[in-house]
Amino acid sequence: MPVYINSTGSVSAQKTFDSALFLEEIVRHNETVLNVIAPNYKEYIPPAAARRMAEGIKMSTVAAKTAMTEAAMKEDEIDAIIVGTGLGCIGDSEKFVSDIINNDEQFLTPTRFIQSSHNTVAGQIALGIGCKGHNFTYVHSAISFESALLDAKMQLDIGEASHILVGGVDELVDHHVDTHRLIGHIKQEPVETMSLLESGTEGAVFSEGAHFFTLSNEKRDSCNAELVAVKTYNTLAEDQVAEKTASFLSENGMDPDAIDVIVLGYNGDVEFDGYYDALREGLFENTAQTYFKHLSGEYDTVSGFGFWLANKILKRQSIPQAVRLNMGDAKSPETILIYNQYRGENHSFTLLRKC
Fold this sequence. Notes:
Layout: E1 4-11, E2 30-31, H1 47-50, H2 55-70, E3 80-84, H3 90-102, H4 111-114, H5 120-129, E4 134-138, H6 144-157, E5 163-170, H7 174-182, E6 191-192, E7 209-216, E8 225-235, H8 241-251, E9 261-264, H9 274-283, E10 288-291, H10 293-296, H11 303-316, E11 335-342, E12 345-354
């Protein structure tokens, strides 16, 4: 059965929380770590509840509500909630451990411990909308979001559910940033947003974000795209990428020429961006090429931002100038391929088609 992506919701380092906008106004950064541009949470969450929520929960609540509103989806229509996350609510985990140390293991409140688990986001959204159906969280590093997509697609394919809320979320916390900076995964010097690929240095610009989508076997007026296929690999060599890409497309009855736009996960790390060069300079040399991490930053579920971008391109039938890698012709894009990897591992291919 076809799997339709009926709506999107996003909170990121750009003003994506406003679903009426599509990167017309780019927020430029010159940092090594980016925080989200947060909406006014009071418009979505009661202030008393928001004060007790971790940043990841607040971002996800806004993104999920935005997606449901765009699809005119009632709360009782959601059959399942599936979330991908690399680190979960790691901020509350750090605070709880700090409280243990600072209070000499005494007088501890359980709130931060309860809210520190990886499945907190999916659980909080379910409580908020009263969803008692399938509730699952995937923690698969940089393919956590794709794992959630695969689960949702399989459930819709076999008729286990009709409407599924799928999301990916990760938040920034100090200890996580300090650790990755120490081991060289974060760039040492600030990089201006639009100059990321010219940085010539190792490491990435780290960030955070939440991206949610309503997937359904029922096409609604708000439909963005059809999810055709998702495939992941744990490890690939650079010289295998083109072969696996062609094989993935062949499995879905396509060849590289059938792809109108390719979305690549370049993050400016000179040690690993060669994986994308293998496609950019090979199979898709004459295809419209785009990238997104110069706008969103890098985190485990950042492919959710790439997925949001691809959906918007298909719905709006236009490519924002800020994400173009070349001037390949794609005036009326019908098919988009998303390819992402992180530090040579957790490769993912996601194929979308105009609905």
